[in-house]
Amino acid sequence: MNELVIAVDVSNLAHRAFHTTGDLSYEGDGTGVLYGVLRDIIQLGDRFGSNTFAFCFDGGCDFRRRIYPKYKKMRQQRRREAGEIELEARRDLRRQIYRLRTRHLPQAGFQNIFWQEGYEADDVIAWLVKHYVNYGADFAVVSSDHDLLQLLDGDRVIIWSPVTKQVVNENVFRAKHGIGPSMWSMVKAIAGCNSDEVPGVKGIGEKTAAKYISGNLNTESKKYRDIIDNHELIERNLKLVELPAQGCGPFDLKRDRVTESGWNKLVSSMGMKSLVGRWD
Questions:
Q1: Is pTM, for the whole model, over 0.85?
Q2: Which residue, 35, 107, 131, 267, is the most exposed by fewest CB within 10 angstroms?
Q3: Distance between CA 79 and CA 108 in Å, rounded?
């Protein structure tokens, strides 16, 4: 497979659309999240010159919660405590993501729609990248999740962030962090991950963790000793942050069957006139 695969963290895109176009609807049904993601698909195809997509969805985080029960727990709690208006908006977000996965993307002819119960979209993306790079595929990973930086591989695996609108490749990563991408999971295991509520070694940030890994941290310093003394915490965290998580996969990349008429039929059915005629 000598082509560029655009591997999309759909939940990441959907949550961004939720905050930008989320109030759109058509014939009584919410369509703002659907519109935002479908619009992004067109823009991503144009940006990278490829119509080969792999859509990766979250399937929960049961695997990680078995290792660390507090994984993303506070985030979940905050959402439960939100007001009824926000709760209903979140329920509609989930409904639209479900419709996208089970109905709309298949209707358009997309074949690579992946998720696995108990695993996150990051795991699915990582499995695809690590497996299919060996078969000649190149990847543009679309996500703002920094955990995915561990997948960077020269110019064969790059990451495009919908937040910064910038591409990161291995050279950019090495220049910033002073280590190779494959060591990023160890950085996260040492420093922790606030967004996933994974506590790291107290007082150690990503820069210090990278210095430790590269051999540039003073072996006589307190921070060096703190890292050494917390090897059990780091070993546990590594199971949480390393991608893909154990047991994820396998997945089979197929040829898409998207046609202009199929695309137009899909977006027209939801009143998305600005997206008609955009697939070629």
A1: yes
A2: 107
A3: 32
